[in-house]
Write a structure and sequence with these properties.
By secondary structure, the protein is of the alpha/beta class. The chain contains 9 helices and 7 strands; from the N terminus they run ααααβαβαββαβααββ. It starts with a helix and ends with a strand.
Length: 232
């Protein structure tokens, strides 16, 4: 569990940053120390990929969308996958490259992926999904750059408020969500934490994939898995 001092730095960065890029540039040195629960989801996502591409890891290109400092990317490359990381935070990518040179990185926007159609076998996104401003466009871009039998894994849902407080149906938690959204909206920082994010993501994924469903990941969260592109 991260210390109060570290969480204080994260909250200050969230309310002082005028964009998601600025926020993640600010917290990149302490990100892994704060969001330790992501390790569980990263391991679960890696297991799903290993089940789907067993024996073919070296020939499987996985795009880590919003890779950050490389928690999930590092696990995947250690399992033998070919990994490409994309993020808007240059500082996060710099730290990732210092730790693991086998991962190729690109600074880019998830809504405008710099790849030709059918480039990747799989796309994963851990923690970053809530921060994309136009999720329908991101899903469309993911579908475009995936191969026909491609796999998309997104986690985690429902996202914790500020990465700390678990979601719930109680009135005070709903009020906390509204207050948080009002505060960050004025700063230009995007963070979709309302409970509608999960069903909307599943619904939009079904526009492009034959299957889209959720699986549990720990006591509080779920992952969304979408498989098999629909024919245009």
């Amino acid at each position: 569990m991260a210390s109060i001092r570290l969480w204080g730095k994260v909250l200050v960065a969230a309310f002082c940053s005028k964009s998601n890029q600025e926020f993640y540039d600010r917290i990149s040195p302490i990100y892994d120390q704060c969001f330790v629960t992501h390790k569980l989801h990263a391991s679960n996502m890696a297991k799903i990929l290993l089940e789907g591409y067993k024996g073919r890891e070296k020939n499987t290109l996985v795009l880590d969308l919003g890779c950050g400092t490389g928690l999930l990317s590092n696990i995947l490359v250690s399992k033998g996958f070919e990994v490409l990381g994309i993020d808007i935070s240059l500082e996060s990518l710099r730290l990732l490259q210092q730790r693991e040179s086998r991962i190729n990185t690109i600074q880019a926007d998830a809504a405008l992926l710099p790849f030709t159609d059918g480039t990747c076998h799989a796309v994963v996104s851990l923690g970053a999904w809530r921060h994309f401003s136009d999720l329908r466009r991101v899903i469309a871009e993911v579908a475009r750059i995936l191969k026909e039998d491609g796999l998309l894994i997104v986690g985690y849902f429902p996202p914790a408020i500020g990465g700390v407080v678990h979601q719930g149906d109680s009135h005070w938690r709903q009020l906390l969500v509204r207050l948080y959204q009002v505060l960050i909206r004025k700063r230009g920082y995007v963070d979709h934490i309302d409970l509608s994010l999960e069903p909307m993501t599943v619904s939009w994924a079904k526009d492009h994939f034959e299957q889209a469903s959720t699986v549990n990941s720990g006591d509080h969260w779920r992952l969304i898995i979408a498989r098999g592109l629909k024919q245009a």
